[in-house]
Design a protein that fits this description.
The complex is a heterodimer of chains A (527) and B (416).
Chain A (H helix, E strand, L loop, with lengths): L1 H12 L2 H6 L4 H16 L9 H13 L5 H9 L5 H10 L2 H16 L6 H4 L3 H12 L4 H10 L7 H4 L5 H13 L5 H4 L9 H8 L5 E6 L6 E6 L5 E3 L13 E3 L34 H9 L7 H14 L19 H13 L4 H10 L25 E2 L2 H11 L14 H8 L13 H9 L1 H7 L6 H7 L4 H13 L5 H11 L6 H13 L2 H4 E2 L1
Antiparallel strand pairs in A: 1-2, 3-4, 5-6
Chain B lengths: L1 H15 L5 H21 L2 E7 L23 E3 L6 E3 L3 H5 L4 E7 L6 H10 L12 H9 L9 E4 L17 E3 L15 H21 L3 H18 L11 H7 L3 H14 L4 E6 L8 H25 L6 E7 L2 E2 L11 E2 L3 E7 L6 E3 L1 E2 L6 E3 L4 H11 L7 E4 L2 E4 L13
Parallel strand pairs in B: 1-7, 1-8, 4-12, 5-6, 5-7
Antiparallel strand pairs in B: 2-3, 4-11, 8-11, 9-10, 13-14, 15-16
Classes of the chains: A mainly alpha (527), B alpha/beta (416).
Chain lengths: 527, 416
């Protein structure tokens, strides 16, 4: 253990060289470090992304939607040399920044198939709570602490998904907030890492007393997180040593890679209250101690894990990859950069907005995606990453592109169940994108998608058909509305010809053209 | 396309893990890939007849006449010496030489959602690792991604795990109990309009692809083409043109239609079809329930095997008959039998299996396995071996390596 403490301290103090570099903005550090790796690896980076490519990418990454036609043309026409920076600041101040980031984190914290699905699959209060953290730019360590305390209405849902499964809380919390994979140590000591079952169950000791309390039913069902004053994890050896009737030894709560919890003895004669409706606050709360530790400077994992995660959110992969498996001996692809981000976060009091701004300001983020590489997530960040839009982003992008929402409309009819079913999880176990048959049957044949495209007053197709502009101008408008760019001559020709076919009514031909554009690879991904 | 994807998955897999571990990882994936290619050449297919709720072994293939657990059904002799079957399976008795009856299943998940999961994936549901169903595994290893038809088709009740870590490309394509196609398989446009927009899509994509070679784009296009090819091949799901005499032999139940559909689809190259039969969960009135079910099962299952054999397909098509649990030897006070996992029966036939045999046995009352117990992993290893798939092929879920069957699983030699 002493060795570990030293390692942790070293991370926190840092080396003098970095202290001197602190005046340098992080986005410059990013570019310097990426460049030096390219030179070392003899890699030629992609050129700078066009304004169009940057515009679409940064809108999707910051707000979870694409820009409107008007926003697009205004940005493209702007001649200010600092227009990208101006745009970034505008988007960071946009209310959709909070909801967009909350959407990302909501999926991080729950995924598409959370346990206790019935109770947590609809969680607007949680999503609202999360969005408020981003809207108010609450420091990351503070909102994580609040999440783990679960005392603010909405925040409790995180624990509710692990109802009755303290081991699952351990797995999730170590992975999400500490960037550490402990699940191997649940059944046996970790094969390649220092973690033992005692570490696993030591952390589980903080959760073993939690009780998910429920009241009301149906849509009015609400939850609170209670905590008992007694209860221990009983450890009975590895899975292979399990025998029926073998009772385990109690395991003392222990901070991951750190100290045992100092805990006052349970008061003599203490009895758990009989009525389990709502437990009183215990005299000593293990949950509070854990929440405090996770968010404190004593925890060497939090800053590094979130630095790596946020980097990967915008750049496609972690500096340590995968992001939830940071080990003592993990080597970052760009160690100086990871350290700079981690230290920077500590200096900026876990201000995620600051970090996001620095990342998207960097030249590295603003590279084009084309190049010879077929990698979706290039290791050296030499070209832009390619990621599928989430179901939520796809719907938002379709709504904006087709001008679906018109003033005076009723509440839009969006069949979320279908969109999350067909677009919700388009990756295999390695995280690689995989298209599916059912996704495309839905794209091709569903009225739920068609609804966005079909003519109605004021929408894209209506505007185009009603317009007296020449066809090449209409094609340009289509491209700007859907892709935020102008067509190349081949594309312009293809679409113009299609719009002018004599085989069918204009409604049908325009619908087909819009359909082809929103079904394309270019639209399906953020790149 | 496929070999390209496999190679990529293979390289990426190697990069996932720390440098010291590249070698074992490399070996595992390399093996998985060559196994996939070998199986594709032999084109082995599989039909799973899924007895939803769990069929009773004592009332079907492991009869205990004269014992307190025996129940009212009488055994009849089959074509195989030493194998008596229930009087309500006379047609199956006639073709028992095609069957390998495993009487010594000993499994771990005693209930429905967990048993259904376990007997489709050979892993416990409680682990929360997204394991794929055997249908998805067979789709991946023995399916042709360029085929017009889906590679994993399901009809009626069945698995609850889907493709798991194998990814959405291998998810099941589910017909309803009547064999009707799922939602969103009928175009809302006229055929000429569909053709027109498909042409435009392809031209636009090819323009985009010239400057952008990345794999996700290619996967997107490939799946789009799959959706269009399916429209072209929808006739394969139409049973109306099958001869009436053959339909009569299968029977008129939904399950019988499913069996005929399965035959039609494997004949058209679909590597895996699951047909569910409801409902065997006879906690009450076990005998009424099983008699009625067997009267549908007997004709459908036997005709399926004979129909496959007539067409020369049986040798390459493994037909598995199983549910998630067996049923208790004890008959409860509602004339029912409850779930039982200590000693129950599964039947294999066709592709790669040596027929006309009984594997393992249970004691005199059917309460325990007497010899040669078979667990979930061994059963799946046997199925995968019969289909030319390496049962220890390795994949990843996040950083965690996972294998098609649990450590220690072995194919049951005598069955193959």
């Amino acid at each position: 253990m002493p060795l570990l403490r030293i390692a942790a301290v070293a991370v926190l103090i840092g080396f003098p060289a970095v202290a001197a570099a602190a005046a340098e903005p992080l986005h410059s550090v990013i570019d310097r470090e990426l460049k030096s790796a390219w030179a070392r690896e003899k890699i030629a980076p992609a050129p700078r992304a066009t304004d169009s490519a940057f515009l679409r990418r940064v809108y999707l990454d910051l707000l979870g939607a694409i820009p409107t036609y008007q926003e697009t043309t205004a940005f493209l026409a702007d001649t200010d040399a600092r227009k990208r920076e101006k745009l970034i600041d505008k988007l960071l101040a946009d209310p959709r920044f909070a909801t967009g980031q909350a959407q990302v984190w909501d999926q991080v914290l729950f995924g598409r198939h959370p346990a206790n699905y019935d109770a947590v699959h609809k969680r607007p209060a949680f999503q609202g709570w999360l969005a408020r953290q981003f809207a108010d730019n609450v420091p990351y360590d503070r909102w994580v602490k609040e999440l783990l305390l679960a005392e603010t209405p909405g925040s409790e849902m995180f624990y509710v998904q692990f109802r009755g499964q303290p081991e699952e809380m351990t797995v999730a919390i170590s992975k999400l907030f500490l960037g550490t994979q402990l699940q191997c140590a649940r059944c046996h000591d970790h094969p390649y890492e220092k973690w033992t079952q005692k570490d696993f169950y030591g952390l589980t000791g903080f959760f073993v007393r939690l009780v998910v309390q429920e009241s009301g039913s149906g849509a009015k069902r609400t939850f609170t997180i209670g905590e008992k004053g007694t209860g221990e994890v009983l450890f009975s050896g590895s899975v292979k040593e399990q025998r029926p009737g073998r009772k385990g030894e109690p395991v003392k709560p222990k901070f991951l890679g750190g100290k045992l919890l100092e805990e006052p003895p349970t008061p003599k004669g203490f009895k758990e209250p009989k009525s389990a409706k709502s437990l009183p606050k215990p005299a000593f709360s293990r949950k509070a101690k854990l929440a405090e530790w996770v968010a404190s400077g004593d925890n060497p994992y939090l800053a590094k894990a979130v630095a790596n995660r946020v980097w990967s959110q915008f750049m496609g992969r972690g500096l340590i990859h995968p992001i939830d498996d940071i080990r003592a001996d993990s080597e970052a692809s760009h160690p100086v950069l990871l350290k700079a981000i981690t230290d920077g976060l500590a200096e900026h009091r876990f201000d995620l907005k600051w970090l996001i701004r620095e990342i998207v300001l960097s030249d590295g983020y603003q590279l084009a995606m084309h190049g010879p590489s077929k990698e979706a997530l290039p290791k050296w960040f030499e070209q832009a990453r390619i990621r599928p839009l989430s179901a939520e982003e796809l719907v938002a992008a379709m709504r904006v592109a087709t001008m679906y929402d018109q003033p005076g409309d009723k509440k839009p009819e969006i069949t979320w169940d279908y969109f999350t079913r067909y677009f919700g999880e388009p990756v295999n176990g390695l995280g690689d994108f995989q298209g599916s048959l059912s996704e495309h049957l839905f794209w091709n044949n569903s009225e739920h998608v068609r609804r966005f495209i079909q003519r109605k007053k004021g929408n894209l197709i209506d505007t185009l058909i009603a317009s007296k502009e020449p066809v090449d101008k209409k094609v340009e408008r289509l491209f700007l509305a859907i892709y935020q760019r102008l067509p190349n001559p081949t594309e312009a020709d293809l679409i113009a010809k299609h719009l002018q076919l004599k085989d069918d009514k204009p409604e049908a031909l325009y619908e087909e053209a819009i359909w082809a554009l929103i079904n394309s690879s270019e639209f399906r991904f953020n790149h | 396309m496929l070999s390209h994807l496999s190679r990529r998955a293979f390289l990426k897999g190697a990069a996932v893990i720390g440098s010291g571990l590249v070698v074992p990882n490399w070996g595992g994936l390399a093996h998985a890939r060559s196994a996939a290619e070998a199986a594709k050449k032999s084109k082995k297919r599989c039909i799973l007849l899924w007895m939803n709720g769990g069929a009773s072994q004592i009332d079907t293939f492991d009869m205990k006449p004269g014992r307190p657990t025996g129940g009212p059904f009488r055994p009849i002799p089959s074509k195989v010496t030493g194998l008596q079957v229930c009087e309500y399976l006379p047609k199956m008795a006639q073709i028992a030489d095609k069957l390998a009856v495993i009487r010594s299943m000993k499994t771990q998940s005693p209930d429905h959602p967990d048993g259904i999961y376990h007997m489709h994936t050979c892993y416990k549901q409680s682990e929360r690792t997204p394991h794929p169903e055997l249908g998805a595994v067979i789709a991946k290893f023995n399916g042709d991604p360029g085929a017009d038809l889906p590679t994993f088709v399901r009809m009626g009740p069945g698995g609850n795990a889907g493709a798991g870590y194998l990814g959405p490309a291998h998810e099941p394509f589910s017909l309803d109990r009547n064999g009707r196609l799922p939602y969103f398989t009928s175009p809302y446009t006229k055929p000429e309009a569909e053709e027109r927009r498909a042409k435009l899509f392809r031209e636009m994509e090819s323009e985009f692809a010239s400057g952008h070679a990345a794999e996700p784009f290619e996967s997107h296009r490939t799946s789009k083409e799959r959706a269009w090819r399916l429209l072209r091949a929808k006739g394969a799901f139409d049973l109306s043109k099958e001869p009436a005499s053959l339909k009569d032999r299968y029977g008129t139940s939904e399950f019988a239609k499913g069996c005929l559909m399965a035959r039609k689809l494997v004949e058209a190259g679909v590597p895996f079809v699951e047909v569910g039969h409801d409902n065997y969960d006879s906690h009450a009135d076990n005998f009424i329930c099983h008699k009625a079910n067997m009267q549908q099962l007997d004709g459908a299952w036997s005709t399926l095997l004979l129909d496959l054999a007539d067409r020369g397909l049986l040798q390459d098509t493994l037909v598995v008959w199983m549910g998630e649990v067996g049923r208790t030897p004890q008959i409860n006070n509602r004339a029912g039998r409850d779930h039982y996992i200590r000693a129950w029966t599964i039947v294999l036939a066709g592709g790669g299996i040596t027929g006309g045999q009984v594997h393992g046995s249970t004691d005199i009352d059917g309460k325990d396995v007497k010899d040669d117990p078979v667990n979930e992993g061994d059963l799946f290893a046997t199925i995968y071996r019969a289909l030319g798939i390496n049962h220890r092929a390795k994949h990843y879920t996040g950083i965690r390596p996972v294998w098609l069957t649990p450590e220690g699983s072995k194919p049951v030699k005598g069955l193959l």
